[in-house]
Structure formats: structure tokens, C-alpha cells
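WARN retry 2 of 3 for item q-0093 after timeout on previous attempt; input resubmitted unchanged.
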Amino acid sequence: MQQTEIIRTINQEKMKPMQFAVILVCWLINMLDGFDVLAIAYTAPTISKELLLSPQQLGMVLSAGLVGMAIGAVSIAPLADRFGRKKVILWCLAVIGSAMLMTAFVKTVTPLVVVRIVTGLGVGGLLASLNTMVAEYASDRRRHFAISFLQSGYPIGALVGGLIAAPLIPAYGWQVVFLGGGLATLVMVIVVLLLLPESLHFLLENRPKNALQQVNRILKKLGHQALQVMPEASGSRVQAGVTKVFSAELKSSTLLLWISFFMSMLTLYFLLLWTPQIIVNAGLPQDQAIRVGATLNGGGLVGMLLLGYLSERFGLYRLIMLFFLMGALSMVAFALIDASVAMLLFLAFCLGFFAIGGMIGLYSAAAGIYPTALRNTGLGWGIGIGRLGAILGPNVAGVLIGIGWEQADYFLVLALPLVFAMVSTYWLQRCQQ
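OK item q-0093 returned
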């Protein structure tokens, strides 16, 4: 029996408890990532006051994590295709946990920026590995929803982290947020060691030391008989390496995936980071602005889960394109309609539902484009290029607002990248046919 037959059989079966456990552990890790990344946002006012940071210095601190995530996605994530998904997850968790703990002890801006970059490096390397692990353990029927469920952990972790941080910071100082986040992340190292197996796809493809024993342990938990020898190779093994994602078969798909990630994240991070401030600039009170921002994130949570659930019935690419188009139209409505607070909340929910939901669908698309040996590399580089858009979007918005553009004008301009993402996703689908 060839290795492809083993994988195909497992993918078509009903999912077993071990597969659900893998997805749950990855979801918990992603939830902690949401807390770790946004911990700096919760603590920024207190840190700025205590360390006497200028607005420019605070901006450096806030953007340092995004820079680290972009670098980590393109430099660390590909290592999982060579050394294994589980090993890279463990390395990244150790890096994130250690950097979070060190953050609690910094006294000046330079080391603060450094530890935030290091934290971002770990998160950037981790995100692709978690997606790959879930994609490779979920069944064909449940794969898109499993990836969407994984991504839901991030906003949930951010929300729970905010609820926890709010009462703790006044009582114990901003340092407790990073101490708690760092310790929780390091605890997950133990959880991963005990509960998370290596990817079966990786073991069959790369055949590291003791691969047969690891494969048989996994097969036993999945209800299959043990193998006497490693199965026959598929005969189409692909070598790992970033240059391989530009092979003749993958070059067009890679470039189109990068465009979709870049354009969608450009608009998305403008919405996530600027919407509350825009609401305040429009004359509404701070509490209303917070409600609008929270509603946008809540819409994204619902959107990503619903896209994953419906993709098996209506087609993943078709839904991604529809979500991007509706996200752009929602931005037009948000910009042009002189709405009540209730209508603003509804439009914010629609913005999050379609813009965030569509972008998360690209994770599932990326997992299906690349073979096992390139899956983490391809997804990691896609995420990394997307992070460049995430950095650019808020800065473009800041420039346009700073030179006096009206809300309707810059919302319309920043809705265009979603249209470009829709078009590139259409051609990406054509490449897969």
C-alpha cells in the first residue's frame, strides 16, 4: 500500500477522537496567540505613561509585533516542512513564552521593541504550523470548518484576554498581563509534548528517525492496523524550499495567493485598527466606539465559522469571492450612509463578517494548494506577504486622514483592495481546476 492510499483512506473516514483532540489543542494554542499578540494593546496606555513613551515610540512598540510576525512567517514557518510540524510548534511556543516573560521586566523602549519583535517571530512561525497540522488531521469533509474553527481561537483569546486584563492592570500593574501570558504559553509546551502527535503526512513523506513507530502509534489511535514496514513512497516527493513554490506548476497559484492575502489584510487591518478612532472622530462617545469595534470582531468570528461550515456545500473559492465583494459593498455603505448607532453596529458586524471571514477562507485555500513537503512553506510565505499589507493598510489610512480626506473618500479607496482580492481569488480558483 502506498502512503497516499493510507492518507486518502483516513481523510475519507469519520473523524476519530484523536483528530478532534489535535484540533482542540491547536485551537487552545491559537487562543493564547490572540492574547499574547494583543496584550500590548491592553497595556499600552499604562506602559506609555510609566515608561514616558512618546507617540512615535509607542507606535514602534505597537507595530513591532506585526513586523516580527511577518518575518517569522517567511523564515521560521518553512522549517516545519524540514523538521516537523510538532517541533516548530514547540520551538515557537518556547520563544513566545520566554519573550512574554521578559517583557514584564523591561524598563526602556529599545528592549521593549526587541521582545515584541521576538514575540511576533514566534507567532508568525506558529500560525502556519497550526493551520497545517489541523488541515492534515481533519477529514476531507470537515477540513474547511476545522481551519475556520482554529482561526476562531484568535479573536476569542483576544476577547478573553481583554476581560482578564482590565481588572488586573489597575490592581497589579501591566507586568502581570505578560507574566500570566508567558506562563500560560510555556504550560502549552508541556501539553503539546504530551498530547500533540507529529503530522502523519509529514512522517510518511519525510520519514525521520523512528518514523515507523510514530506512524503506528497514530494509526492505532485512528483504528488502523500497525504497519510492518513503512509504506511504499508515492513516487512524487517534492523537496522543501521556498524556491519550490515557484515551480512551473505552482508559480501562478503562489503569486495569486500572495495578492489575495496582501490585499485582504491591507483592508482588514485598516478596519480593525482604525474603526474605533473613526467613530470617535465622527463625534460619538468612546463607549460607542468600543462597541462598534467589538461588533466588528464579533462579526468576523461568526463569518469565519459560517464560511467554513458552508464551504463544503457551496464551494470554498465561491464563498471567499462572495465575502470579499460583500465586504467591499459593506465598506461603501459604512462610508456613505449617515447612520444611527444601531445601523453602525449592523454595518460593523457586516464588515467583520465578510472581510474577516473571507480572509480566513484563504488559509483553507492555501492548505489545498501545496503538497505536504511545501505546505508550511507556502502558507507561511502567504501569511508573511499578507502581514506586509497589514502593516501598510493602517499607515495608508493614517496618511489619508492626516491630509484631510473625508471618511467617504478613504473608505472607498480602501475598499478597492477587497475587490482586487476577489479578482485574484477568482484566478486562483481557475489555476486549481
